[in-house]
Write a structure and sequence with these properties.
This protein has helices at residues 3-34, 37-56, 62-90, 94-99, 105-119, 121-134, 139-166, 170-186, 199-205, 209-220, 228-252. By secondary structure, it is an all-alpha fold. The longest helix has 32 residues, at 3-34. The protein has one domain (12-252).
């Protein structure tokens, strides 16, 4: 490789890094610095359900509730991408500028997704402190739990990105975000074991990918025993859902047709 090619590659990498950094600054750092109330909302959302479950169970489901808080934080962060992208697209016409630039939708989506993680850091830090004191995870269990959270985040950002390209109003986007968060991270057994749901209704919970995520997380911490077959099936479902939604995002999302 000659010096010119290496120089072009280095410049390309710097450009991508700058684009990702710009997404983080615009979508998370700016809001966190200028509107501190958003930090309170970010922290309270997962912790509110955690506290309810802990009080109702008299502390017996503390570990499961902490894991549920993590899952909700990751899922809500990705789904929240819809509202932020819709706001930037419809109110500031940022997506029009990105479309006309060399930046691809993959780089734009990745940068905005990282910004959502930064935005969720306050809640994640609080949950991490609680998890350190009240959860017991082996090294393998910790890796499995991290893998579950990663797949949940991938799944939710694919949903958020796809819906944002179809949304025409920020009010519509927020309505969709609240509806999806409720359907996928509040109603399913994320903060408690699925065994608490009566068997005739238990199968309905499996319509949500967060149910499989919660099962794997609780199994990793020893709260919910799973057979190797069931655990494998749960991983297959989570991975398949994430891949399928990313295929939808890459083929069906209206990136250019704004």
């Amino acid at each position: 490789m000659n010096d010119s090619a290496r120089s072009n590659q280095s410049l390309h990498r710097r450009n991508i890094f700058s684009e990702i950094l710009a997404s983080i600054l615009v979508n998370s750092i700016y809001e966190m610095q200028n509107f501190p109330v958003v930090l309170i909302n970010t922290v309270l959302s997962p912790l509110s359900f955690l506290l309810v479950i802990v009080f109702v169970s008299h502390g017996t489901l503390l570990g499961e509730a902490i894991q549920g808080g993590f899952i909700m934080s990751m899922f809500s962060a990705g789904v929240g991408l819809q509202g932020d992208l819709s706001h930037l697209k419809n109110d500031f016409k940022l997506q029009d500028m990105v479309v006309s630039s060399p930046t691809g939708w993959q780089t734009y989506m990745f940068g905005m997704a990282i910004s959502e993680l930064v935005y969720s850091l306050p809640a994640v830090v609080v949950l991490a402190v609680l998890g350190f004191y009240f959860m017991t995870l082996s090294v393998l269990g910790l890796l499995a739990f991290a893998g579950v959270l990663f797949l949940m985040f991938l799944t939710s950002i694919a949903i958020g990105f796809t819906l944002s390209t179809f949304s025409t109003d920020i009010v519509q986007s927020f309505a969709f975000s609240r509806l999806i968060s409720t359907l996928f991270s509040t109603i399913p057994p994320v903060y408690y074991p699925i065994t608490y749901i009566p068997l005739p209704y238990r199968y309905v919970a499996y319509l949500s990918p967060t149910t499989y995520a919660a099962e794997l997380a609780q199994n990793a911490a020893g709260y919910l025993p799973l057979s190797p077959t069931n655990a494998t099936l749960d991983w297959i479902v989570l991975i398949a859902v994430a891949v399928a939604l990313f295929l939808v995002a890459s083929t069906k999302a209206r990136w250019v047709e704004i």
